[in-house]
Structure formats: C-alpha cells, structure tokens
Amino acid sequence: MTIGRNDACPCGSGKKYKKCCIPKYDKYLLTLSLLSDHPTNTSFSLDANSNIQAQNSISQLKSNLAHLWIPDRLEHMSDEEILGKLNELQISITREQIMEDLSSHQSTDKVRILWETRYNYNIPGFDADFPYCAIIVLWKRWFPDRPSIEMLDEMYSDMFDPKERGSMVTEFRRIWTLLKENFIIPLGFRSFDELHNHFDMEFDTESILFEAQGDFVDDCDTIKNPDHRKQQYDILIDTYRDIFSLLPEINEHNRLELRRTIGEIQCSAEDYDQAGISFQQLTEEYPSWVWGYVSWGMMYDSPRHHKSIYSPERTADIYRLGIERCIEDVDVLQERLEHLSIKKDITG
To answer: Shortest CA distance to 267 belongs to which of 298, 293, 288?
Structure first.
C-alpha cells in the first residue's frame, strides 16, 4: 500500500506522514548503525537464536532503507543526473520547465501535486519518493534566497537544534526576513493566522515569539564581548518590533504580549531606561491590562539580575498603580504586593 504524504502516519502518532516518519529518513543510518553495533543494549536479554533473528531483521531493514530516496542522497547527484533520473521515471521535464514550476510556487508540496497531475505518474517501489526529493534539492540549489514554506520549517527545526545552529537570534532574524520577503509581503498577510490558514506549517512563528523568548535571551547572554552582545540584543528587539509593525491584525492579546516581551528583552539587555518607557507607554495605553504592571514591577525586583535598579519600593508603587487602574485579575497584583511586604519583613 502506498502512503500519501498527507495521510496519517502509519506509526500511529496521529501526525501527517510528511511531518512524522518521512523527516526521520535522513537519520535512519545512524540509528540502525547503533542498533547493529550494540544489539544487546536493551532493557531485556535475548537468547542466541533471537539475537541472530534480530540481527538479520536489522540487516534487511538497513538494506531496504538504503534504497530509499531522501534529499541527502540527491545532494551527491549533479543537476544532469537528477534530470536524467526523472526522465527515466517517465517524467519528461526540462530544466526550464522545472525552474518555471519552482519560481511560480511557494510550496514544494504544491509542485509535487502539480507534477503528479501533469505527468500522471505512479512510480512503484523505492523510486516513489524520487520526484519529491528532486523538487526539494533543486529548489535549494536554484533558489537559495527564495525558500519554500517547507524549507522554512526545516530552518526552524535547525534553529532549535544545538548541533545545527550558530546564533539562535541571528538564525531567527534570517528566517523572519525570508518569511517576510517571500510570503508575508507578497501575499499581503496582516496576521500569522492568515499565514497559517494559507500554508500548512509545522512551526508557528507567533508561538515561537513567546515560547522561545528565554532561549533568545540566553543566546545573547552567552556572548562575552559586550559590544557583540548588545548587537545581538538589538537584532532581537528590532525583529520583534518589525513583526509588530508589519502584522497589525495579530489578535489584541498577542499584540499586548508582544509589546510586553519587547520591554522584557530590553530589560534583559540592561537598557533599563528604554524598558521603563516601553512598560509605561503600555500601561498608559492599556491601563486595565494587569500583565503590563507585572512585568514593569518585576524589572525593579531582581537584585541578582538587575542590581543597579533594584527597588522594592518602586515595584510596590507600580503594583499599587495597577491595582487602582485594573478591573480584572487585580488579585495577581495584590498577591505580589503582599509577597513584597513579607519579603521586606523577613529581610528587615
């Protein structure tokens, strides 16, 4: 049975095949090599006969998988060899036609569907994935500055992988720039919802903005050179601001969170004056949003991280201001204010 890329993965994960086991093909040789080298490194023991059967099964599986087409295998082929293989598979296509197809689409999956429809091919066996791998590899070679939406997903994956990335902040800026210049601006998207309704992406940039904030800050803080560290913080803050200004229809809650996050990053960068301005503007424009006061107050309540501006009194004043203005979630500020009093009593 042939499994479609958009079908449910047969492993039972509930994900689409293209987002589950297909991406794992590029790691299969290492995994099987480890199994082959250490066949008894398991939670249970095998008798001699079972061990031989397991070794044979592994050998057969390695042999089968070695015939599968994955993008890494095509990287070692020239353009002419890839074109020759496509024609051998009854896909009569020229370099010019491929370039036209790739330049007029933004998704490798869309090009795959186009080819299947146009050439009406049904390739059996191990060669079934070759056309799609060819699309991926040739796209990367011929249009490196105009990646497909799937390639951006791959970049996000590498960004979170310490073995693959350099500077996480620099890579995030690069991905955002490619996303902005090749998808958001050309297609007129005004929110991430519009982007994700149009494209099937594994990674949600909007979620990354908030969930990876700590990782971005840690990435900056590991830099010992103060000038370089400041430069990375500036890149990060500029990226968040760019997103905020370019996508005005992000839902209001996330726009508030985005502004709060910018202030928190400015604080992490020890740009306390600008952070204070950001939080003050946020609380003046949205006086009933409690979390603006929370982040503003916390800036003055960290003797370990922000010793030079540490002031529990200033924090208390900000929390009291929020209690006066806010209608909902006032208890959040009241509890923090009480905690400040208790801490003051303990420390004398």
So the answer is: 298
Collapsing DSSP to helix, strand or coil, 14 comes out as: coil
Task: Give CA–CA dist 38/32, Å, rounded.
Answer: 10
Q: Comparing C-alpha atoms, which of 280, 271, 188 is closest to residue 236?
A: 271
Phi, psi of 292 (to 5 degrees): -65, -40
pTM for this prediction: 0.76
* Residues ≥6 apart with Cβ < 8 Å to 295: 260, 263, 264, 279
Hey, which of 18-27, 61-70, 96-105 has the most confident mean pLDDT? 96-105
Quickly tell me which residue has 């960290």 as its tokens. Answer: 302
String of DSSP letters for 310-325: --HHHHHHHHHHHHHH
| Residue-wise pLDDT tens digits, 205-255 | 999 999 999 999 999 999 999 999 999 999 999 999 999 999 999 999 999
Orientation of helix 312-325 relative to helix 330-347, angle to 10°: 160
Rounded to an integer, what distance in angstroms lies between the CA atom of residue 85 and that of residue 90? Answer: 9
Q: What is the pLDDT of residue 55?
A: 61
